[in-house]
Every structure is written in C-alpha cells, then in structure tokens.
Design goal:
By secondary structure, the protein is of the alpha+beta class. It has five helices and four strands, in the order ααβαβαββα. The protein starts with 6 loop residues before the first helix and ends in a 10-residue tail after the last helix.
C-alpha cells in the first residue's frame, strides 16, 4: 500500500530536505476515478519491484492549492518532484513497463504532458 499525503503534509515537505530525499513521485487521483484505480495498482506493482523509489498518493479533492499551483489539469496525474518542485507531470500512464521506465528516467521522456 502506498502512503497517502495531505496537501498540508506535502506543502510542509516541499521546501525542505524531506522533499529532496523522501518524496520523488506524487500520484494525484480522485476516489471515484476508475482510471486512477488502475494507475494506483500499476504504481503498487512498480513499488514492489523498486521499493527504493519513493511514491505517495494525494487525493486532489483535498489539495486544491497544489492542483492550482502545480497546474495539474486532470487526474490521474503522476508528478515527478525534483528539489522540492514539480519537474514533470504524466497524465497518460500507459503500461507498467512504460511507467516504470519514465519513473526510472530511462525512456528519455522527462516532461510528457500527454
């Protein structure tokens, strides 16, 4: 099970060392979104394969400030965090393998807004 973070927790971490070390990916979702549930399952598979990759969940309904500030347009959205700031947003998750490669930065697609 992936950890769930509130907007407050993410904002507290976004300016300090914790964001640089603890949070690398944040998956924004809504509870009633079927595609979001599929994406969550894919992330759980990747987390089992790569427990060293920090991934957390955030219900976008309770994070309006982050959604607006980080320009999250829809869910599901996987955000790559670098130095405490959003560096890339991924809306189309594709397959587990595509998602894993994007997260490991092996695919060359650093910023994919599709």
């Amino acid at each position: 099970m992936l950890p769930e973070w509130t907007e407050k927790q993410l904002l507290e971490r976004s300016g300090g060392k914790a964001a640089k070390q603890d949070i690398r990916f944040i998956y924004f979702y809504t509870p009633l979104c079927g595609t979001c549930k599929v994406g969550m399952r894919m992330l759980e598979v990747i987390a089992a394969m790569h427990p060293d990759i920090p991934v957390g969940l955030c219900n976008i309904n309770y994070a309006p400030g982050l959604a607006h500030g980080w320009q999250i347009e829809s869910v599901p959205c996987l955000v790559r965090i670098e130095d405490g700031n959003p560096a890339a947003l991924l809306y189309r998750l594709g397959s587990v393998q595509e998602l894993r490669l994007w997260m490991l930065d092996e695919s060359g697609k650093v910023t994919d807004r599709s």
